[in-house]
């Protein structure tokens, strides 16, 4: 096969006659045309092999191309004028499809990067290219992109710029509060942005007017900057709406300025999101922060299962769902901490409330127990401070239990004296676990290496984790024990590649999606992160980081991330079906609930895990940690 780049003029003429590009401005289309290549294939030749489909958009100039999924025996014949590949072929099919020339064919090929660059400036092209990352949940700069996020449908994957309903109303910071309120009334908006010298410098909402002006009896002649949220949180216009939903839920805010580079593109409100989707995470968090007692929080927590159902119904990725559901847990925890401090008074010394386990990894579902701890300032004195933090942690943990997060069976909670300690004691714990990796130490490392600050002085945890990672990175003996421990969780594959079901008991003839499917991937990612001394906590993010650091191959990390997404999505859908039936959600899936296609994918996912476990075991045995 020979590929010959075409000159810009013929390519431009060709593209300009295609319906998909007719509305693209001439200069933008010319830039795209400069990347276009002609190529030809004889009948029977492979046009794109499996795995190459996402890399380029292929337009059939003449002849016929068969798009095939050989795993399931599907074939689609594409004729002159049809196109496939980047942005067109659905994300979940891109890895399995290949293209073969059915006749002699002439093709025009556009690189995915060039097409994506065009679509960032022409977002209306989402109609034609719905599976491009720019429209389907691409991670922001600096964040690891999860392939499955590109499959987000509907609201969750829609670029924020498409949800902005009107331009933001702006004012100089020196504008009197009274004038700002009058402008908000006349424009019928719930917020104004403060802009000076073309730069965003503040945000004022109707809630600020109510709480910071009327309730405080503040002089309305003062500058509006006096009541503003200075340097407000912002979002990029190209980010998916999922990130707006998550940001609002995490910070209990209802207004977020949207930026297009350095330019103010507008403002997004919780109402804009709510009007487009049934997901109510933002309002759920808002209700949480308004509650004044544990009973109120417990009532609200019953809506979490409904939220997960909505997300499952929208076909949200497991990655998105885990982050959103966990954000609700974070909000409940934070509100319980506020109630505890209101009841007991301010804490006598600095502390940080730390989530462990699935909450720390932002991988929770509607059914979770609690794993948490307290890291106290090293000024902690048991005689002076012990009673306060004992009562404080009991209140929060019991409150979480009332909200449906059952007490950890292993008592790994802040209300347990052992897990409520000053930073220096926590460092001693980790030093002991690393130096003496006995079975219990390995189990505790698995729980408490996955940590994330929820409330308080985050520096206490940050410095602790940095110290721990310095001790684990390249520590061959400790890592060897961690590998051995990780390999205790094996995917349920039989000798001949068949799925092995649970025998006997209440869950006979099912598979445990948590312990037999998802936990093995979580364990692998944790070992990789410990070996590389890497900071990421979320499993998918860890796999992205460890691949970049060389702890696992790029292909291995990609396969594990796909397997994790598939298995986690099965778990979420399974729990949603149970909730609809009025059953308590669990992790035990019967194979008869799956299609033959899903069962085949399940085997493939288990095989990926089994293969990577074998690679890690061999690496351990050969002493190459």
Q: How many structural domains are formed by the residues?
A: 4
As for the CATH topology of the largest domain, it is Beta Polymerase, domain 2
Computed over alpha carbons, the radius of gyration is 27 Å
**Helical run tally:** 23
Using the 3D structure, state the CATH architecture of the largest domain. Answer: 2-Layer Sandwich
Give me the count of strands: 22
Give the helix proportion (percent range): 40-55%
- Read across the widest sheet, the strand sequence of neighbours is 1-2-9-4-7
> Can you identify the CATH class of the largest domain?
Alpha Beta
Low-confidence stretches: 1-8, 134-154
- CA-based shape: globular
In angstroms, what separates the terminal alpha carbons? Answer: 43 Å
Per CATH, the superfamily of the largest domain is Beta Polymerase, domain 2
- Mean pLDDT level: 86
Class computed from helices, strands and strand pairing: alpha+beta
In percent, how much strand structure appears in the residues? 15-25%
Largest sheet, described in full?
Answer: 5 strands, antiparallel
Summarize the structure.
This protein is an alpha+beta fold and 625 residues long.
Please describe the topology of this protein:
Elements: E1 3-5, H1 8-16, H2 26-33, E2 37-41, E3 46-48, E4 56-62, E5 65-69, E6 74-78, E7 83-85, H3 91-94, E8 98-101, E9 105-111, H4 112-121, H5 154-157, E10 170-171, H6 177-187, E11 191-196, E12 199-205, H7 206-214, E13 229-230, E14 235-236, H8 241-251, E15 255-260, E16 263-269, H9 270-276, H10 281-290, H11 294-301, H12 304-313, H13 318-344, E17 351-356, H14 357-360, E18 372-376, H15 382-402, E19 420-422, H16 423-435, H17 439-448, E20 451-456, H18 459-472, H19 476-486, E21 511-512, H20 513-532, H21 539-549, H22 554-580, E22 588-589, H23 596-621
Parallel strand pairs: 10-11, 14-15, 18-19
Antiparallel strand pairs: 1-2, 2-9, 3-8, 4-7, 4-9, 5-6, 5-8, 11-12, 12-13, 15-16, 17-18, 17-20, 21-22
């Amino acid at each position: 096969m020979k590929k010959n780049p075409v000159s810009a003029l013929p390519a431009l003429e060709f593209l300009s006659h295609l319906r998909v590009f007719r509305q693209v401005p001439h200069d933008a289309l010319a830039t795209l045309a400069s990347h276009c290549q002609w190529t030809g294939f004889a009948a029977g030749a492979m046009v794109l092999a499996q795995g190459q489909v996402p890399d380029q958009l292929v337009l059939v100039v003449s002849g016929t191309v068969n798009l095939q999924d050989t795993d399931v025996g599907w074939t689609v014949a594409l004729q002159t004028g049809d196109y496939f590949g980047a942005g067109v072929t659905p994300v979940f099919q891109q890895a399995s499809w290949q293209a073969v020339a059915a006749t002699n064919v002439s093709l025009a090929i556009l690189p995915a990067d060039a097409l994506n660059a065009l679509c960032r400036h022409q977002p209306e092209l989402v109609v034609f290219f719905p599976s491009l990352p720019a429209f389907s949940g691409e991670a922001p700069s600096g964040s690891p992109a999860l392939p499955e996020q590109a499959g987000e449908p509907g609201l969750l994957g829609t670029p924020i710029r498409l949800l902005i309903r009107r331009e933001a109303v702006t004012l100089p910071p020196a504008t009197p509060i009274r004038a700002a309120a009058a402008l908000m009334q006349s424009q019928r908006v719930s917020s104004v942005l403060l802009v000076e010298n073309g730069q965003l410098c503040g945000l004022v909402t109707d809630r600020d007017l109510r709480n910071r002006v009327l309730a405080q009896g503040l002089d309305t002649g003062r500058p509006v900057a006096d009541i503003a949220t200075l340097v407000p949180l912002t979002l990029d216009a190209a980010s998916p709406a999922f990130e707006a939903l998550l940001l609002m839920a995490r910070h209990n805010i209802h207004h977020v300025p949207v930026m297009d580079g350095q330019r103010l593109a507008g403002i997004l409100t919780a109402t804009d999101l709510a009007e487009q989707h049934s997901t109510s995470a933002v309002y759920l968090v808002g209700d949480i922060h308004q509650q004044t007692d544990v009973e109120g929080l417990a009532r609200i927590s019953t809506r979490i299962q409904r939220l997960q159902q909505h997300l499952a119904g929208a076909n949200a990725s497991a990655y998105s769902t885990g982050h959103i559901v966990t954000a609700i847990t974070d909000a409940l925890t934070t509100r319980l901490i506020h109630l505890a401090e209101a009841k007991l008074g301010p804490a006598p010394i600095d502390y940080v409330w730390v989530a462990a386990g699935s909450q720390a990894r932002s991988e929770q579902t509607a059914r979770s127990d609690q794993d948490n701890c307290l890291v106290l300032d090293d000024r902690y004195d048991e005689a002076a401070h012990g009673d306060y933090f004992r009562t404080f942690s009991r209140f929060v943990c019991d409150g979480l239990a009332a909200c449906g997060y059952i007490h950890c069976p292993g008592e790994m909670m802040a209300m347990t004296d052992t897990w409520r300690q000053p930073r220096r004691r926590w460092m001693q714990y980790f030093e002991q676990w690393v130096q003496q990796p006995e079975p219990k130490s390995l189990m505790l490392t698995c729980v408490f290496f996955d940590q994330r600050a929820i409330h308080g002085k985050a520096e206490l945890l940050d410095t602790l984790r940095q110290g721990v990672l310095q001790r684990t990175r390249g520590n061959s003996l400790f890592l060897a024990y961690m590998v051995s421990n990780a390999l205790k969780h094996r995917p349920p594959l039989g000798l001949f590649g068949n799925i092995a079901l649970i025998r006997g008991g209440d869950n006979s003839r099912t598979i445990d999606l948590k312990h037999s499917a998802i936990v093995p991937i979580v364990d692998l990612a944790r070992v990789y992160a410990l070996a590389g001394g890497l900071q990421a906590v979320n499993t998918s993010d860890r796999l992205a980081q460890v691949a970049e650091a060389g702890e696992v191959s790029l292909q291995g990390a990609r396969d594990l991330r796909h397997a994790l997404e598939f298995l986690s999505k099965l778990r979420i859908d399974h729990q949603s079906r149970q909730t609809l039936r009025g059953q308590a959600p669990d992790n035990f899936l019967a194979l008869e609930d799956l299609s033959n296609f899903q069962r085949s994918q399940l085997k493939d996912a288990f095989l990926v895990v089994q293969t990577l476990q074998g690679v890690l075991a061999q690496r351990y045995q050969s002493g190459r940690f």
